[in-house]
Amino acid sequence: MEGSAYNTSQRICSIRTPRARDRQRFNLTSDNVSETQDPTEALEELLHKTWTIFGVSTLFNFHQDEVHLKRYAKRLREEVAMSLSQEDVMYNAKLYIMTYVEIRPSPIDPPPIKIEVYAKKYHSNESVEKCIYKGILLSWKTIDKELAMSNCMRLPLLLCHGTKSTMKIVHKTLGHMFDCIIIALNALEEDLVWLIPIVVSPTNEEEHPKRTDTISMEYKLTTSLDTDIIIIHFKISDLIRIVKMYAKDQNDEENVEISFDSNYVDKCREALHTQVLHTAGLQMGQCMLYKINLPTFTIMANKMKIRNMNVMNRVLLYLNKKALGICHTYNFEMF
């Protein structure tokens, strides 16, 4: 692992072939924190914006003190300025710990880290800098114990937006500085069929949708061009009936638990396909789901937009598990 001024040259790693963690269960109740301690309030800035989703491997040799954070920001600014090299433009970078996010789903979740890059023309009359990149590194219920090595950190999710050129430079620089891998975290069809019941399942009366609320599901024909799509509109209230039909409910006077497993998700998908066949005469077996759009949530590939705090918590919990399964399944042998 080369190219970083902050690397630990004495660390040599051999990487074994990773084994993906099978997605078997998502518990809607136990994965949520107490209603009296809502961790999403401090992350309200994530709402109503389109974010590009990336998975991040372990950050090595990351120091959280102010001196090092300024060094990281300076290195980032220099790399952006050198790579973009636009005339009459000066750049600035900021990197800081979001200490105000005090409540997180897991006690070992480190506070999120915000990264910002700004551009401003030298001779511009405007005093406001233009943000060309904003990213938030976060851990949202990482249950694995902290790495034994010092100054290492697990922040499996990176949500960001900005220009493509700046995004590429920032992620490359972060990879060099912290010996990490940053990869696009695409929502595949298998992820979408999990996210549908996760997002729509109500746990209280306030979460029930309006009668007119619908979900839009966009499919691609697997044997045709990408331009050939099928869009299915479904009432969310009807979808919830299907979800409840197969959900594992354990009800008592004090606790309501809704948990999903892979068998349950497969049954929901089959029931949904059967319903589409009966109502529209469409056989969905040769189609691939690639986008879902609800009033509170939209996701396609590795881009998403969330409009509700409770939905945001659920989606982050799911994406964090996915990122951990992809980016943190390597076995490292230290010599």
Entry keywords:
disordered C terminus; 335 residues; 28% helix; 6 helices; 11-stranded antiparallel sheet; 3-stranded antiparallel sheet; alpha+beta
Written account of the structure:
- The protein has 335 residues and is α+β, with helices and mostly antiparallel strands.
- 28% of the residues lie in helices and 27% in strands.
- It is built from 6 helices and 16 strands.
- The chain has helices at residues 66-84, 164-178, 189-200, 236-246, 262-280, 309-327; strands spanning 13-15, 25-27, 50-56, 89-97, 113-121, 130-138, 157-162, 182-184, 214-221, 229-235, 248-251, 256-261, 287-293, 297-300, 303-306, 332-334.
- Strands 3, 4, 5, 6, 7, 8, 9, 10, 13, 14 and 15 form an 11-stranded antiparallel β-sheet that branches. Strands 2-12-11 form a 3-stranded antiparallel β-sheet.
- Strand 11 (248-251) and strand 12 (256-261) form a beta hairpin.
- Helix 1 (66-84) crosses helix 2 (164-178) and helix 4 (236-246) packs across helix 5.
- It is globular.
- The chain starts with 12 loop residues before the first strand and ends with a strand.
- Residues 1-22, 30-35, 249-256 and 331-335 have low confidence and may be disordered.
In short:
Helix content is 28%, strand content 27%.
> What would you report as the Rg, rounded to the nearest angstrom?
22 Å
Structural class: alpha+beta
Average predicted local confidence, pLDDT: 82
Percent of residues in helices comes to 25-40%
- Low-confidence regions: 1-22, 30-35, 249-256, 331-335
Characterize the biggest β-sheet. Answer: 11 strands, antiparallel
How would you spell out the order of helices and strands?
Answer: EEEHEEEEHEHEEHEEHEEEHE
Instruction: Report strand %.
Output: 25-35%
